[in-house]
Every structure is written in structure tokens, then in C-alpha cells.
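Hi R.,

Here's the chain you asked about this morning:
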Amino acid sequence: MRLQTKANTFTARYPNGKENVFLKGTTLFEIMEYERLPDMDRILLAKVNNQVRHIRFPVEEDSLIEWLSLDTPETGRANQHTLCLVLIRAVGDLFPSNRLLIDHSLGNGLYCEMKHGVRISRLRLKKLQKRMLELIRKDDPVEIIRLPREKALDQLEQNGENRALVAGNEDEPFLTLYQFGDTIDYFGYPLFYHTRLLSDFHMEPWLSGFILRIPEDPERHPAANIKQKKLFQVFHEYGHWEHILGIEKTADLNIAVQSRKIFDLIKIAEGLHEKKIANIADLINRKRNQLRLILIAGPSSSGKTTFTKRLSIQLRVNGLRPLAISLDDYFLDRNLTPKDARGQYQYESLEALDVARFNKDISQLMAGRQVRLPRYDFKAGKCMEGPLRKVEKGHPILIEGLHGINESLSYTIPSKNKLKLYVSALTQLNMTDHLRIPTSDIRVLRRMIRDFQFRGYSAADTLNRWTDVRRGEEINIFPLQEQTDLIFNSALSYEPAVLRTMAKPLLESVSPDDPSYPEARRLLEMLLWFLPVSHDHVPFNSVLREFVGGSSFQYE
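And here is the predicted structure, written out as C-alpha cells:
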């Protein structure tokens, strides 16, 4: 036993004010056992100085330790990743000659398939689910492995990954991997140290692959199946675009940067966007006497405003003269805005809009009458009188806003006269075959950069508000995705390299004491895998310019 001295010990502090001294290198698991914590089996992670850590993490310095159980928000992501690790091992056990691809989110689950064209039948899927349940019950430990960079890359190369995967983070001498049985992989977030408390899950066949449904709350059952064929088709189309670009994973993007092919790829990616927007404009033009109201909606930071401006240009190319209206101008006066249980204004609610006036104005515009539109003063929190506007017969009205695809918004307008467009950054770029980049990560990085540059908010401000933003989207946007007529994917395969350049200093500025610090560190670790590209190379009409600045469009 080593003699405890000040040089080789650290102090563990807890939120309740209690303290204890331990030898440096003592793991969180050993601390937990020494403290004889109640309900130890339910503790799955810990925060060490506000960073989420695996329970086998060795502590080396004075630390504030907070234990995280199943009922804490941080366990949701770890639950999903740990289940994916179990899935990877089960596939290796049953189908060793095949390579699993965890491709993208789909509604309330993850879409997965085999990379070598093996179709997962219901029988195979049943065997796979059975094997996963066996592994969970067996409860082998999930071990943390911190390897020197080159050894870690050797392991990832054995997994089928390219060593360029980590080209963007050459200063990191070690990489953290996780081992479950003989399966070793990277996940970018601490996992559970055992599997017996993993949430219930469900698997079902979907086209050539299957969907792994996982509840966000580990203590709940998986949500019911939500068919999202339109959304899947957009992901499939984006996958085709990625194939054209040759960028499907982080390593591909890094190789493109290293070879300087990235500049041509940026032009191609933007050209694919322009072609898609032009096709939508052509459709509207072909039905110009029928489609009068073009409703454009989507979650935060999807690039709806730039999309609307670019669509307007393409409509003008077709000889149309569209009128663009923002739903934000139909907000009720602040004193009439509904509040939630915490007393916060619910601007994401449809009830925050003057829906009656909106329908009246649109009906009169479609009838060829001149209408004085409202203009919302956000500083004063009041609806003011705006400009007089008129639309000629056969020319469209573009409505951009959160609730555009909600039928309750435009209830007086016949469906035959409406085209509902859904815009979202549906990222399909993966870091590895087994680790996807969540679509919400790209959106929050976009928003963080825009908030800092144009709204005076810090990265911490944006991250701390993001949970409420996401909650509003879950209620008002995502359930309506499949009710749209068309979906435009505003994601750009190259954008993580540009976002890294601008978001890195913002994320590094988040204080370790801030509640958003763990999320800032997670996002920063993800971005550091990408080689940086300057935003100077982004075309001036790009959707991305709405966030990084320098757009050829003007935004109010």
C-alpha cells in the first residue's frame, strides 16, 4: 500500500459538501464502493469537474464528483451508444463476415444495414435481437481503454476505418475506446460500465435494413413505430449525393481537405442544392394557377430563410413574382403570448400567432386584393402596421416559419392551393460506420455561430437554451414531417470542416462551471476530428452563409 502524501492524493468533493481523500489513479468505481453509496447498481456514469465520465475513469486531481443514475439527462446518450455497442458485438457473433452500418436516425430510432448487401430478414433480425438480450443479461463489463494514438488507429483500422479519421486532431496523443468482450470501438461519449440496466429496445425490418428503436429516457419502453417513408427517402437521396461527392465519413472529408479537392467538392455540394431548389421552382411553375401558397417550415437553424430567398430567385427565373412573408410578423403582442408552467413565453406554440388575421390576409391576397401586412417589433413585443402588398393572379405567396406545415395554421385555404415544404439539415455524414453525427448537432453549431455573430449570445447561452428549443420542435415540428409535400435537406457534406473553424473558439470559451460545459466538450471533441476549412471558401448564396456571415442576401 502506498503512503498517502499530498503529492500523490486528491480530494473528492460531493454536492452535499462531503469530502474524502484518495490516491491518484483511484477509479470512480472504487470511490463509489468506498463511499458505499445507496442504490449503487443504478449509478452508471459520473460528472468529474462537470465532465461526464465512465465509471472506470481514474481520477488524478481534486474533483467535484456528481453521480449519475438512470433518471439523469446525461444517461440517454450513453444508453443509446451502449446499446449500439451490444448490437455491434451481436452482429460480429452472428454474421462475422459482414460489416454493420449504423446509418442515421429515423424518427424515434436508428436505421441500420449491412454494408455488403446482406438483407436482414425477419428471422435474422429475431436471432440478432435474441443475441443482444443474451449479451445484456450476461452483463460482461464495458471497459474503458485509453490507447496511444497509433495503437488506437491500428484498432480502428482493423474495424474498417481509415486512419485519416483523426487527421484533424493531431495534437491528441491518446484516444479513448471501449471494449465489450472482443469488440472494441470508439463512441465519443462515456458508456455504461455494465449492460444489465440498459433500456428496453425494439427492432423491426425496414427496407434493406432494420430500425433499432431506443427510448430517449432509459427507464421507458421504446416509443411506438412511426412510419417515416418521406424522411427516409430524403436520407437515401442525400446518401446518393454523398456517393457523388465521395464523402461518406469523417476520413473522406479529411482526405479531401488534405488533397485540396475540397474546393471542387464545395462547388458540387452547392450545385446539388441549387439543382434541387430549381426543380422545386419548376414544379411550382408548372402548377402556377393551382399552387398559390408555398408553406416553408422546419426546425431551428435549418436555413429556412436562405432557402426561401433562393427559391424566390428560381421562381423569378421562371417568370413568377413571389411575395415572401415571415410568420414571425404574425406573433401576438407579448402580453397575449401563452406561457408554460414555468412562466416562460411559448413562442414555439401555434397559439402565439394571430392565426385568424393570417388566414384573412392570405385569403385577400390570393383574391388579388391589396393588404396591409403586420410587422412584429421584437424589442417592444408588439405587432405594428407593416407595408401594403398585393399579389397578381397566378403568382405564389411564400410563407416561412415554424408552423408552416401545420394544417391548423392555414385552415381556410384549400389544400389544392398549398404546397408544404419541410426544410431541415438532415446530416448523414458519419464519423465511423458505427458512430453517426446527430442532425441536431449540426443545427446547434450553426445556431451557436449565428447567435454569437449577430445576436450577442455566447456559446453557453445557445447551449443552455437548446433543450427548450428541442422540446418545442418535438411538439410542433417533428410529428408533422410526414405531412409535407416535399422535404429539402439543407445539410452540406463539407460543413463540419467550416463549422470547426468558427465553433472551436466559442466552445472553448464555455466555463467549466457552466451547466452547458459537458455538452460543449462533447461537441468540441467531435469537431476536432475534422480538418478545418475557412468559411471564405463558402459561396455567398450558400445556406451556410446564413450562419457564418457574409451572405449575398440580407437578413432582418
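One quick note: DSSP finds 14 helices and 21 strands in the chain.

Cheers,
M.
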